Amino acid sequence: MLPDYKSDKERCIFFLKTYSCGAESGRRKYEDMLVDISNRKRESLEIDLADLEEFCLTIEGYENFPEIVQSNARRYASIFAEAADDIMPRRIFGISDEDDSFDVLMRQRDQIGVEINENINVSPELPDVLRRRFRVYFKPGTKIAVRTVRSIRAADIGHLVTFTGVCTRVGDVKPLLEVACLTCDCCGFEIYQEVIGDNFNPINRCPSGACSLRAPTGELFLETRASKFIKFQEVKVQERSEDVPVGHIPRSLTVQVKGGLTRTMRPGDVVDITGIFLPKPSTGFKARQTGLVADTYIEAMAVKHQKTGYSDILMSADDMTNLWHHHQQQDMYGKLAQSIAPEIYGHADVKKALLLLLCGGVTRELRDGIRIRGDIHVCLMGDPGVAKSQLLKHITTLAPRSVYTTGRGSSGVGLTASIQRDTITGETILEGGALVLADHGICCIDEFDKMEESDRTAIHEVMEQQTVSIAKAGITTTLNARTAVLAAANPAYGRYNIAASPQENINLPAALLSRFDLMWLILDVAGSESDVALAQHVLHVHKEGKPPGLGFEPIASSQLRAYVAHARTFSPHVPVELSNYIASEYAGIRQDEIDAGEKAMGYTTARTLLSILRLSEALARLRWADQVHSISPLLHYLISIYQLQQVSEGDVNEALRLIKMSKISLEDTAGDDTSKFDPITAIYMAIRDWADAQPTSEVRYDQAVALVISKGYTVETLRACLEEYASLDVWVLDDDGNILFVE
């Protein structure tokens, strides 16, 4: 027969002492926590309401106790703290354990004691809050549903609630006074005053017996050494855009974070916050204006991130086995790309470019402090109705850290940083914009062409230097904006005008275009076969709610995110052997642009060379550097470290092919043939130029295939070229198809 505990404190003590993590283990979960708190190994007592619900189901008369705790959470947090104080075990000193300054101070206060005046009721005991070295937090149970910011009403005041939101402003961590120690300047009497709420009125006269006999009495001064301060941080949380009803604006809530929960949130994080919904009455002059209307806030108890960054993703052995299984499949690169937004028809190369954007290149920091970015910027420009915005939305949901905005609804200040006034101290502070919130993530900007020119120039520094320099309102600083920019825009005339030049259609300054690694032009070209296939795909998605079969099972978003996270751990570099090849290809691109004249389809600068390197490094990351399929993962890992994870020639050729394919839609719609040579002659000249840059006169067949594909030609055209020029005795072919030039 269990004892009938009538007081709430006795019930809390009974739960903390008897709850175990499973009948077989018999391990006392909360007793172990108290031992760690006593031995200075932890500073929080986390009461899991799921444990409380499980415990109360087995005891008669305790069934409604979890609901009572949730409905009056702040009171029961203090009751659990008092219960923990009563059953706190004694500290076990180790060999290296030493008392800190607070322990020494408390021991001195216990030895000296406090003078008591018989006529004035002054407590000789130190407050329990002053001695307490932990805070009580409630973790949400199974019966607490995750809500939106808008659904939290006045009826929830005092209740424990869980909601989802986006952190828009995170304040600095500051000390918050919890227990004030006041000392008399005449008699040295000390009095401790517990602070409840945001404001308190300190005692101004000494209540000791010695000072009461004097005239005038001594004054009390705050002694910070004996007072208790805790870490305090204020966070502004806004409801997600998908939770906002039609015609409304997003609502926000102020969240007060104390103790060990500080510094757990950053601007831009999507989090589930569990806390106590409390009122905050106005005081002072503000109370005259507001009257009985009170502000509300959330006192945070638990924080759970919905999306974790790539570096925070923890993968088990089973996860690595699944990733290795995906990596062993044929055409892994193509399957990963097709798994991005499979509901969208076509755009195979565009999805490959977006996959490389997710993976990114390697950020280099030179010895002299110069930083070369590794993030890849992509701009999708095309006709209306080619699913540009849908691709941006999907990348936003796929990336662990991302911000979505539109050109018309964004200003230069909204993208970079703005000056705000701190609600607590009244100081001038900086609030980061979309690019700063997307630090170490992706910033998707839709309707990029609709932005004002003055606002668009604000992102020039972000795209190359990846910083935001601020010199406003007496604040001079530099904010980090290490983000990849994915922009979508329409041509200058709404639709691409074939009669006009590419520069007139794109209508973006060269300084901005050169900062994009890939400027992808997508044209809506009419064709009976392609239109029928597109219509059948769309109808199948609307009817079945899923895309048609791709010939394989698309990789889930969580697994794709984990694959990219593991790929980003590699740091491949470009070997010296490929330097001449990359340099010759870059020079060829520049020469082709000069030959095209006004019909050139882009601006090729030295940044294009860095774009080739970034795309090649991203491809090397996707294949986990020099992955060899016939050896074990452990042996491959050792080999990859020894080989320093090099970029291969195939990676460079694929990067060049993507740059070529980004403008291929323009060539398909061109009325005349702008090429100086026929395809066979063009392939011959490309092979000859590549061979001239090599120390040997022999060209392997696989090298020729990779070179031809990077130029946008087919393997059939290559074979016709090989046979034609072999018949002219320009080169000799061996049995494997390798080419040997005749001297």
From TrEMBL:
<dbReference type="GO" id="GO:0006271">
    <property type="term" value="P:DNA strand elongation involved in DNA replication"/>
</dbReference>
<dbReference type="InterPro" id="IPR027925">
    <property type="entry name" value="MCM_N"/>
</dbReference>
<dbReference type="GO" id="GO:0006270">
    <property type="term" value="P:DNA replication initiation"/>
</dbReference>
<dbReference type="GO" id="GO:0017116">
    <property type="term" value="F:single-stranded DNA helicase activity"/>
</dbReference>
<dbReference type="GO" id="GO:0005524">
    <property type="term" value="F:ATP binding"/>
</dbReference>
<dbReference type="GO" id="GO:0005634">
    <property type="term" value="C:nucleus"/>
</dbReference>
<dbReference type="GO" id="GO:0000727">
    <property type="term" value="P:double-strand break repair via break-induced replication"/>
</dbReference>
<dbReference type="InterPro" id="IPR027417">
    <property type="entry name" value="P-loop_NTPase"/>
</dbReference>
<keyword id="KW-0539">Nucleus</keyword>
<dbReference type="GO" id="GO:0016787">
    <property type="term" value="F:hydrolase activity"/>
</dbReference>
<keyword id="KW-0235">DNA replication</keyword>
<dbReference type="Pfam" id="PF14551">
    <property type="entry name" value="MCM_N"/>
</dbReference>
<dbReference type="InterPro" id="IPR008050">
    <property type="entry name" value="MCM7"/>
</dbReference>
<keyword id="KW-0547">Nucleotide-binding</keyword>
<dbReference type="InterPro" id="IPR018525">
    <property type="entry name" value="MCM_CS"/>
</dbReference>
<dbReference type="Pfam" id="PF17855">
    <property type="entry name" value="MCM_lid"/>
</dbReference>
<dbReference type="InterPro" id="IPR041562">
    <property type="entry name" value="MCM_lid"/>
</dbReference>
<keyword id="KW-0347">Helicase</keyword>
<comment type="similarity">
    <text>Belongs to the MCM family.</text>
</comment>
<keyword id="KW-0238">DNA-binding</keyword>
<dbReference type="InterPro" id="IPR001208">
    <property type="entry name" value="MCM_dom"/>
</dbReference>
<dbReference type="Pfam" id="PF17207">
    <property type="entry name" value="MCM_OB"/>
</dbReference>
<dbReference type="InterPro" id="IPR012340">
    <property type="entry name" value="NA-bd_OB-fold"/>
</dbReference>
<dbReference type="Pfam" id="PF00493">
    <property type="entry name" value="MCM"/>
</dbReference>
<keyword id="KW-0067">ATP-binding</keyword>
<dbReference type="InterPro" id="IPR033762">
    <property type="entry name" value="MCM_OB"/>
</dbReference>
<dbReference type="Pfam" id="PF24901">
    <property type="entry name" value="WHD_MCM7"/>
</dbReference>
<dbReference type="GO" id="GO:0003697">
    <property type="term" value="F:single-stranded DNA binding"/>
</dbReference>
<comment type="function">
    <text>Acts as component of the MCM2-7 complex (MCM complex) which is the replicative helicase essential for 'once per cell cycle' DNA replication initiation and elongation in eukaryotic cells. The active ATPase sites in the MCM2-7 ring are formed through the interaction surfaces of two neighboring subunits such that a critical structure of a conserved arginine finger motif is provided in trans relative to the ATP-binding site of the Walker A box of the adjacent subunit. The six ATPase active sites, however, are likely to contribute differentially to the complex helicase activity.</text>
</comment>
<keyword id="KW-0131">Cell cycle</keyword>
<dbReference type="GO" id="GO:0042555">
    <property type="term" value="C:MCM complex"/>
</dbReference>
<feature type="domain" description="MCM C-terminal AAA(+) ATPase">
    <location>
        <begin position="332"/>
        <end position="538"/>
    </location>
</feature>
<dbReference type="InterPro" id="IPR003593">
    <property type="entry name" value="AAA+_ATPase"/>
</dbReference>
<protein>
    <recommendedName>
        <fullName>DNA replication licensing factor MCM7</fullName>
        <ecNumber>3.6.4.12</ecNumber>
    </recommendedName>
</protein>
<dbReference type="InterPro" id="IPR031327">
    <property type="entry name" value="MCM"/>
</dbReference>
<keyword id="KW-0378">Hydrolase</keyword>
